[in-house]
Fold these 4 entries.
Entry 1:
Amino acid sequence: MKLIYNWLKDFVGIKTSPLELARRLTMAGLEVKAVEEKDGDFVFEIEITSNRPDWLSVIGVAREAAAVTNSKLKIKNEKIKIQKPKENQGVKITIEDKKDCSLYTAKIIKGVSVGVSPEWLKKRLELIGCRSINNVVDITNYAMFTYGEPLHAFDADKLASYEIEVRRANAGEQLVTIDGVFRKLDKDILVIADKQQAQAVAGIMGGKSTEVTASTRNILLEAAIFDPVLIRRARRKLGMQTDSSYRFERGIDTQTALVSSDYAARMIIQLAGGNLICAREKGATKILKKTISVNYSSVQRILGASISPALMKNILAALGFGVKGSKTCFSVTVPSARQDVEEEVDLIEEIARIFGIENIPAEVPYVKPQPRARTRFDIISKTKNILIAQGVNEAITYTLIDRKLLELFSWPVDEAARLVNPLSEEQEFLRPCIIASLVRAAALNLKQKQPLVELFEVGKIYTAGNNEELVLGLVLCGKKSVVTQEAVVNIKEGFLRLKGIIQNLFSGLGIAQPEILFNETTAGFKVKLNSKEIGQFVKVSSAALEAMDVKYQEVYAAQISLEEILMQALPEKKFVPVSIFPAICRDISFVVQENISFKQITDLAHKTAGLLLEQVKITDIYRGKQIPQGCKNFTVSCVYRLPNRTLTDLEVSPIHACVVQALTQALSAQIR
């Protein structure tokens, strides 16, 4: 939101420079992103948090400025005089549902002269990016930016009658809004109507037919409180975003609506002439204010700072809170504009903001280390650390995805959990698999010319029926260069890299190695643990990659259920010292059929050699002219060692001979 320094000074007697004021507001939580000197004034660009709709106005920021600079507010809420209505000039207001519209006010001002706004008014609006239209419309906008309450002026003579209805639109009802766009309305959209038809989309935009123009002489000035949820849904359905809807969606204070309406009416009479003939209100004009007790001791204990009771009261009073004190505590009345303040700790936060976080002394917290049982969180942290140690980067993606992504990965849309009221089309479904989100993240990295992308994510997936599951997702693509003594070798990512990462993970968590089996259906691999399928490896389809603008790249992904892994992970690992006794190594070179895996070889060797065989390492795989078709040559190194003494050749030789014999008999290996 943009705001002008001199506009702010109309409501608070600040003498602080614009830059210093920006710094103090930012330190108090109201972030001023930029200050620009423009046309003899200073324009503040302010970031408003969603829980502070009261800051969407000059008055709201003025309260903060008064508190942080210890200045006085200059806000006067003057009553406006109303002429006695003449024959049948009153307004009748009908609200169909008070939940949709808790308050509607209408003022009839007759005899206005619509024209160009005065220069000071045009300048202020244009400095904050609002186009000047005419004096009446400019005043409604000016009042909105001043108080935060959106107003609308109808050309009263173009209404069918002075009988205003606030109701849901009828099926098939239509309206051309001020921007000249034809809108189709339905029962989910609230409208302001006369006796004949809808004349405005409530809280969003007025109708073209009742727009205030140069020929307008009589106006109906509207100020209302609408249901924020209803306005947001209507705005999304119509594909519109206006300053008015932005404020209504975040909630408007009832008292602000009343004051703002009077303020605008007074300005119209001053700048455009005319007389206020009638003013009507329908709905709740008063709301019950909250009262919260605050203990002095609670403030000291929570903030860890010594703040005098008088200063606490002054801070809250400067922010618009009503304060009554006693010896040990004080009672605080929350203004209706502060919808975010619910309990004592909220008020303590207000005191801390204005007192200054930088003025609270920093202390090292007292921590008493205590041993504790290994938790699920610890195992997840360890899982992440093992993956990071392998060079894989952690990614965190949204759990909400769009329909297009589901279709790209051939996931049945009907089986995905859809949000009843999604915020946008991009966040319509809870993700049923984690791979899709990760592949999109990888595609973004590839577009940034990253040669190698290795990402993982630990997160939940959701399926229809309120089922959710914690899973590990992995995605690999690109190639990496490995420098050897002979040359630089480029290695492309693939299933083998995925397999290595998963095997290292299981090893690090102390879990038995999983079975990784070819999946004919997906041309990928299944991952099984104790005969139960817990995940899969896939190669992402070229169609999905092209849709993400990824070309000439192969992307491999995996999704593994973490629930099964977390149950089997060993809580602790014991340190095993490195043996001080030397090992005896014996190499074997042999030819086997292509379908024989290295795991089969190592399992057979360990089973045959028993405890003497410490490790079987693969040193070479060869396929060439000297090797028969359909076969491969393995060269493996068997490492024999005992932890408590040195082995001799007499002990190792017969054992190693048994290993060789087992390979030739069980796997039909031909020793070379």
Note: The radius of gyration is 37 Å.
Entry 2:
Amino acid sequence: MEDKELNHHKNIFQDCNINFLIGSGLSNPFFGTLGNIETWLEGLEDLKSKKTVSDENYLLAKSTLYKTYFDIAMRGNIDIHSSIITKDEFEPAETTPQEKLNNTYKAYKDFFKTLNHILYERRSNTVNKQINLFTTNIDIFNEKLLEDLDLQFNDGFNGIFNKKFSLSNFKKSFYQKSLHYDNISEIPVFNLLKIHGSVTWEMKNGNINFSNLGIVEEVDNEISKLSLLDIKKMNDDKWDSDDRNLTIEEIVEEVDKIDPKPDVGDFISSYEKLQIVNPTKDKFKDTTFNKNYYELLRLYANELEKENTVLYVMGFSMADEHIREITIRAIKSNPTLKIFIVSYTETADDIISNFLDDLIDIKSFPNVEFICPENGFNLRKFNDYLLFPLRDSIIEYNKTNS
């Protein structure tokens, strides 16, 4: 990174309200991509509305897609939770699940550790030492790393034996008073706002409570009792054929051949206890926490409307139309807002294309910049490219000017 660009980010971290929008790309390679699951789930609902699928086949196909989503995005949280990773270097290869977990963990660790140091070095009196982390990820990487590093964070929960979620728990500041001289200093804090819910949330008496991974383990247990279609294998086999795209009609056709059909009632009942947004466009219909979902989106909108705000978008393709709409509105209405979109690919075609769905040429806005110096620009490379040099530069500056 050139010195001019580095100084630009240094000034931003010194004086701006700092926000990150984090998507599933940051938890790669440990968690895979969702592929066509959204398309299949929506296709299944369409078949149901047209009454072209029987109720029995609908439930079995729905269970199969839920299981596929669970396998890709949720089961691995059990391994994250139980892992004690002391190795502080990257694996040379990412072949086994453990190697992928170690490298994803290490990249997150460097990310939070460095951000915390940068916040600690902040000398401005006009902004606090907080960073907002808005994420659509339902996995536990963020909270696992923040806890393992013993950093202060607000995740919306309060309590010990009965931890309840409330939006009022965000934005709390923490101060440390020295034992001998009573000097008071502000401690860096991360606000973790999980817009799409979390695998650790459960609904209890009308409140969102912290369930740890109890529901994930319950769902995993129910899946172990069933023999469902392997959608991933079907998709891979179809990809090798001339007509590559596996359709929901083909999935339902295979489901129809299953005889006798397993009873999936207990599995669906357990799965739907999860307080998460399923990967469908009609997200609101699938959640029982609409109020909190809207409120978290409102907090996201409010932050983007503040003066001198910066947003780093990472691992997020802007495919979510609700978040994209709010972001576009803020880009147009807040001239002091600065957005950096960090892209995995050098061309950022997927992100640009998603904005074009709203007839927005995102590259035409002066307050939006892309950070995509090379293909395969993941979290590890972002740390090397921006955060480490930024931390070192700020430390050096503070030493020189103290």
Note: The longest helix spans residues 97-120.
Entry 3:
Amino acid sequence: MKKKLFLAYSSTFLFLLISVWLGLSIGSVDIPFSALWDKEANPRAYSILWNIRMPRVVLAGLVGASLAIAGAAFQGLLRNPLADPYTIGVSSGASVGAISTIFFGVSIPMLGSYTLAMFGILGAFITLIFVLSFARLVDKTLKMETLILTGVIFSAFLSSCISLLTALSHEELKAVVNWLLGSVAMRGWSYVYVLIPFLIIGSLILWFNRRELNVMMYGDERATSLGVNVVRRKYAVLIGGSVLTGAAVSVSGTIGFVGLVVPHITRLVWGTDHRHLLPLSFLKGATLLIICDLVSRTIVAPQELPIGVITAFIGAPVFAYIFFKQRRKK
């Protein structure tokens, strides 16, 4: 077991380091490795590396990590491999919260640069409450089909709200459209600083509930019989996942399927124990989005694709495979 865990963490760290190295070194300008520390040797390369590529790679990694660990927690809590922030409508809720902030020019002095992230988190949490409440109203057992269809319904409604706000935008149109495309380009260190505290808070909430997630996978009654306060733990996980999703969406736009693909593959390869599933998903999510961002800015260079296009190309077939596999079991 120890050998398997060592292999899991060492290989995951190795892939993450390789993805970071590729993300920093590949681009329209060749960056020598020495530019990491030697400003005098090549000031232009040093400036590109630390002011453009490094914050972009770091932000892509943090967004991917946030979405992946949130997806792993949602899947464990709902006992559903198709549950992720995108498919159950939480990402759409965060998008509405963030776009409403841009559209109405909301700025709360006390929150400052964190206003956008806070409204994104609020939109994600409210949407999640509505999705789960409606799904339970339709089907108290919260079957997979019910949850997914409810997520589709709410996503469609929220997408129409986004379209309405976009259509009504005038001066804010450029900012709204740029945000909708889903990207980590030209965000800079300020977006990294906005995301980091929410990433720490959300991840710690989920980490402190890792053992309870393991127990709740076997059902609420068994978890209660083993001394778990199911209601309190569920709300904790939902809040943690919503914080991570809302903050990630608010700084990068809607990027789908990361929270679906990464936890599912991690679970298949390394097992279902959330003590390791959560950190491994965190690291693999960071790796995946750094690679997707690299592909999005190089595949049709000098033009750049929205990063959400690349994740959708990967995620949609995986989504179809999981759905097909689940249906074949019945």
Note: The chain has one domain: 1-329.
Entry 4:
Amino acid sequence: MVAVDTIKSRSTSTVRKPAPRYRVLLHNDDFNSMEYVVESLMKVVPSLSMPQAVNVMMQAHVSEVGVVIVCAQEHAEFYCEGLKGKGLTSSIEPEE
């Protein structure tokens, strides 16, 4: 009899790491009307409903900064630039 050696294959599973997420922030300003801010939020971030846009605007108005959306970095940069293009003050930061 001939012994048969088996070759054990290594487990090559790949663990996917989730992409880092970023917060798009809206900063309060004294230049734009509340209506304009809500309208701009809904145009730049189409997934925001009117009540959500109002909440973001009010959060920024009361706390000086509001979280618009949390998403992947590329999208966060896109939304941030869109808000800046509307004359709003916006920035992004990594979600912790």
Note: The longest strand covers residues 65-72.
